[in-house]
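(Protein data)
===
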Amino acid sequence: MTTAADSTTSLVQSVDWLAIAPPVVVATVALIILVADLFLPEERKPLLGLAGIAGLVAALALLIPLRDGSHSTFCLTTGTGTEACSYTADHFALIIQVLVLGGALLTALLSFGDTRRLPAGEFWFLLLSSAAGAALLPAARDLATLVVALEVASLPAFALVGIKRDDRRSSEAALKFFLSSVVATAVMLLGVSFVYATTGTLHLTELAIRLHDVPDQLSTLAKAGVALTLVGFAFKTAAAPFHFWVPDTYVGAPLPVAAYLSVVGKAVGFSGLILVTVIAFPSYADVWGPALAVVAALTMTVGNVAALRQTATRARSAVRLLAWSSIAQAGYLLVPIASAAYSSDEQIGSTVAYALMYAVVNLGAFAVAALVARTKPDNRLSDYRGLYATRPLAALAMGFFLLCLAGLPPGIVGLFAKVTVFSSAVDAGLGWLAVVMAVNVVIALYYYLQWTAALFRAPEEAEPATPAPAAALADGPAVAVQPLGTPVAVPVSLTTAIALTAAVGIVLSGAPQLVLRFAAVNLF
């Protein structure tokens, strides 16, 4: 006989607070910063940045007790007697959480000490709020949590892009980003509603079971739901033809925000895409597999060809090239996901390994770009000529990052990551996709090597100092733009970000197995 106490207990779901601690800590610190900003005087605002960095470090530390990958919470017992959980801290979730929280931490280091004329409280609150959503998403195991996490990560990013209120380019970029993202979200929600109408469940593991035996009269609805859901995530990954928002958004956003979007924003999109394809929709692999293979080929080709067309003297051409490069890299990241439809889920490990490599070196490239922007706010590719003569360590670091992205020694980790992705296509029988990738890697060598060579050329004659545009400054009095060789004060946090990414890149190039071992195991 069930007592009243037993009945009450059965209605109360236990929560594994340790499992959800990383995103909860980041969200809590964000709220604390928002409130503290109301009371702190202007001269104490740097404390908000320190609090944000401390919160991200604490969240990363809380991942250590979860390293066994066995924590789940918010679970329900299904009709088959098994448990369906809404939050699972498995190995896949932990690796992506390390990536997004580490990326947010490096973004914070890029921003700290250089938030001149930016509203500090709002900036740190928005950055941490987005990071909390990004940390929640890879552990989400139902479509409702997945969509909420995706929007929590995305909505603050819109405001971050447009946070330079006196810059028309920033406002325009934020508007384009917002409108295109809203449309993609609406399409994705329509797809989710179709899937739910077909199956009657939102849990990913239950969807995999129920979509396997969809009644004939609902098969068209189910296929439409799967396709529309994938379109929404394709936008978040900047996959062609949903990539159009990326260049203008990166150029208009503050450099640290562009770096954040290029790594953390991309990780969010790919995490969601992996979860819905591999866990929820495996029975429709014959639908999404060929589609993702074609999208991967199109994305890497569009990104590389557009990067080739960048003019060295065009304003912000360096950031624009990094934007097109990130689109091309998204194409490579899609290859193992498409391959998983033809072989096994273990192919997903290649995407994770490549994403870890890409995150480190791309954030490093943006960090050097932020350094150059302190003396050359227009950030042209031509502004990097002769960087070795004035800042040899920064030039060496930038050269190393570009060679990693190109997949050339001494960027061994970039080379091995590309080989791993290439192998996943070959193993899956996608020989044509492997050929397209090989051609695109060769195309990319041109603009990566051209930029690298410019770093070590003789510098051009110094131009006279000119006043910097107000929009290029971030808090503090207006300063004059100095020639590239003129010493300027560089925040310790920016130097730390460059040194940290370079050190991690060098370690991974010396021991690439630290990352590539993920390519050989099933992370779920």
